[in-house]
Request: fold
Amino acid sequence: MREIEILAPAGSIEGLYGALRMGADAVYVGTKQFGARAFADNPSVEELTEALIYAHLRKKKIYLTVNTLLTDRELEEELYPMLLPLYEAGLDACIVQDMGVLKFLHQYFPDMDLHASTQMTLFSGEEAELLRPYGVTRYVPARELTIEEIREARRQTDLEIEVFVHGALCYCYSGQCLMSQVIGGRSGNRGMCAQPCRLKLRTPYGEGYFLSTKDTCTLMHIPELADAGIDSFKIEGRMKRKEYGMFLSHLYRKYTDIYLRKGREYFTELREDTESELWRDYRRSMDLYNRGGFSDSYLFEKHKDVMIYPEKNGHFGVKAGEVVRAGRGKAEFTAIERLHYQDILEFREEDGTQAYEYTLGDDAAAGTSVLANVMKGSHIYPGQAVYRTRNQALLDKIREEHDKIDDSFGLRGRFLARRGEPAELTVSGNGVEVTVRGDVVQEAARRPVSSGEAADRLDTLGGTSYRWEELEAEVEAGCFLPMGGLKELRRRGVAEWEERAVPRRKAVDVPAARKKSALLARDPVDMISVAELSQLRTALKYAGRDTIFHLKLEHIPSEDWEEAAGLLAGRRMALSFPRILRGKGKRVFEKEWEQYGGVFMGGQTEMIVVNSYAMVLYAGSFFPDAKLTADTNLYQENRWAAEAYAGWGIQPPFVTVYGRVPVMVTEGCLAKTLSLCGRGENRIPFTTPKGDKFVVVNHCKYCYNTIYTEQPAVCVADVPCRRMDLTWEREDEVRKGIGKWNF
Reply:
């Protein structure tokens, strides 16, 4: 049987143990530092060290999230000492976003697997292969990929592939979002995302939660997921309650095993029968948490608009009743689901807003009438829908099933006591045997201890995750055995067995002052990035002769490429391809490149602005002699990252002194959500509740969008290698900017 890992979230130490007990093969978890969920109830290093012993004895794994951007000081002075005891205790892997962190961990913790996070925005197995030399054994593709793209990635690499199969979905390509940082200084790349995509937005076409994606659920697609060659089914949810991770671990393990054992025909029968156990569990998972229902994720959904639920944010719940009459502080509704004591119910307006919420006082069967006291003035009316947002019986059932599980690890013990010799306890299990010795056994002055009494005193392993499968005691007649001595012998025996039974590692010595690697040198030159031919003409007219002119091909139509190349004859030229190149958009661009791209070949292109890992591959194929420089989204927060990119020939990014900030790059399409496709609305503005203004730019040919700040950001630092990044500036704005910044 093929092995498929069920990987669960653990936002707390209780959630970690709960998920492993309920069916997860591995958990991903953060500590108090360096994880992308800084506000979860993350365990301490000491708690994780103990958890690693628990997990490894049960053939399970723990992956640590180190998936934020770090500074040099954090890397060398904080990450190393934090990670050292976990590495020595056998930490299975770290999940990483930052190239510098990747390079650092591979150097100082070489025997540990490294997993490339979805925040690295990898679209293919070929891109993932770029990271293999840094110790990467697994990667998590961008969550926007289709199942066909996953199958293709499987053909391109034998690295393990881990895919999100359930839970919340960011609107932005993970790792490409700066909106939280721009709005409130809380960077998602530093683990402090304020979730601005869940805000209600105002546009010229209406208000709604237009960036709030539904939660995903792929229980029904387990055969397709398994057959695509995915190694690990990943469940999102480190910020959710522990019962969420526990229950979903159970469900995905259960139905993955059903498919692997019984095959597609049997699974198809379950899927087609809406009264089957599979559908019952699907509805239960929706009761546990959903946002406007479930989507089948980008893996299987064919239409982007169904990924969004613009009417309501947060847990949607399930419809549980309908009001039949209301008035005088009372509301009567008919239950359409079985309801339970302590369920939380919500009377809901048609636009999704809450009219009234209350906690149910008694059970109610489906089809029966329920009379509720409601606050006077609440907008309750006949026909109004009632939703359940907490299923108390389901939560109780999950805890009950969890508490039934006895996963204590079985040990065998043999105790021997003879007068005049040290007491001796042998502990064995998992192929390991240790013997510990205590004090010399004395003759009893009064009442001697029997073999049975010694066994009883040694029998209790309370407060540990162990039990005696077998315990033998042989005590010579007339011996005295103090209770404290037996307890201490038992404690030492189990502790020494545990230390030998769970392998430990030896880390490379602590980082000392090291010789800094030389970074690639670059002449102090300025760059102007243009999105339109009119901007290029103006820039050429007013900018200095040494300026590099960067053509952003995601904006400039392919029919204009030849004219752009002609305008730049004899001048310095840089190129960047569309930031997102995958699926249909990639095929369109590659066809355009085959037809028109030759105008940029033959040595005229001096520099490539690298804005994705795919661009590293394209640059090597099409521009082997061009210099490479990082775009702003190839983060270089530490010198280790700069050195890693330098290994690929990539220089650090230019300093943007003027430009609108691209705060999101998205597969989701606001034009599609607002039914504006085909109406020529290339730029759609929106405003957050606090008045922050942004503009969505559609790259329709390539099937993605970029969200920019409405106003450009300005950096007043006097630095070399400056960049003016133009978006939709008019000719007079370009001219004035060049004069102001002396480009």
User: Anything to note?
Assistant: Residues 242-272 form the longest helix (31 residues). DSSP finds 21 helices and 37 strands in the chain.
